[in-house]
Amino acid sequence: MTDVLTLGETMGAFRAAGPFRLGGTAELTVAGAESNVAIGLARLGHAVRWTGVTGADEIGSLVRRTLLAEQVDVGAARITPDAATGLILFEPRTADITRVLYYRGRSAGSLLSTEDVRRSFDAGVPRIVHVTGITPALSESALAAVTEAIHLGHEAGSTVSLDVNFRSKLWSPKAAGKVIQPLLARVDVLIASDDELPIAGDHQVHEVVLKHGADGATARTPDGTWTAAAHRVTVADTTGAGDAFVAGYLSGHLDGLGPEARLRRGNAVAAFAVATPGDWQGLPTRADLELLDLQAGS
Ligand code: CKP
Ligand code: MG
User: Fold this and answer.
1) 85 in a domain, yes or no?
2) I need a surface site. Which of 87, 115, 268, 277 has the fewest CB within 10 A?
3) What CATH number is attached to the domain comprising 165?
4) Can you give the pTM of this predicted structure?
5) Residues with CB under 6 A from ligand 1
6) Is 73 a catalytic site residue?
C-alpha cells in the first residue's frame, strides 16, 4: 500500500562553497522538491512512491540510486534515452540565501507525461497525492501529468495536496497563477509561503497551510485556525526547508494527528533540515525526532 505518491523533476545538484565563477570543488548530490518530500516521508517510515523521468545517464542513475537508498519506491519512474537528466547549481551566499542556477531546459524530467502518472496509479491508490507548482512550469506534458495526478487522486478518494513552490526562474507570478488556480478546484490541502498566497488567488480549498519561515506556520480549515511556532536552531542552509515542513505535515496527516500537531511535526522536521547543509540530508527519522524531544503530537 502506498501512503504517498508524488511526482516531479529530480536533478543532479552541485553545491559549491562559494561563487561558481571561482571554480574549485563542488559536492555532487541530487535535488528536487517532490523527492525531498518523498525522502522526508520515507525517513519517518511512510511508504512513498516518486514518479519522474531521468536520462539514461550517470546523473539519472545517481537520482534513482539515491531515492532507492532512501527507501523511496521508484518502480514507476521512467528512464529516457531522449534527453539528459537536468542539473541544478547551488551557490550558498549566506545561511539564508542560496543562489540557484538551473540547467533543466528540455531535460529528461520535463518529459513527464500523463502515461507516467497512470502507470504510477497501477500499483494502487495512494492515501495522499502530493504535487508542487514547479512541475507544471516545466513543459506542457508535465502540466498535463500534474493535472492527471490531481484528477486521478481526487476520483480515487486520495487526499490531494499542492505546494505552490513558486520559482521566478521558471515563470512569472501571473503565469503561475493562471495555471495553478484552476488546479485548486480538486486540491484538498493547499500549502504556500506567505508571499506565494496571491498566486493561489480566490479558491475554496478546505485546508490551507501557510508557512511563515522562522515564524512558524498556520493551518486554516472550516473548523478553525491553528498556529505553531518554529524551533530555534542554528541555520546552516534553508534550501529544502519548505519541503521538509511538507513532509512532516503530511506525515501528521497519515498518522491521524490534528491540525496543531501536524504543524508541530512539520516545524520539527524543517528544523532538522535547516540545521544541516543540503536539501534533504538532515531530514530526521522518528528516532531523531524523539531524541531531540521535538516529536510533535506526543
Ligand atoms: O521550497 P524548497 O526550498 O523546500 O525547495 C527546494 C527545491 O526542486 C530544490 O531541491 C530544487 O531542486 C527545487 O526546489 C527547484 O526546482 O527549485
Ligand atoms: Mg518551497
Assistant:
1) no
2) 115
3) 3.40.1190.20
4) 0.96
5) 31-33, 36, 88, 100, 134, 165, 167, 239-243, 279
6) no
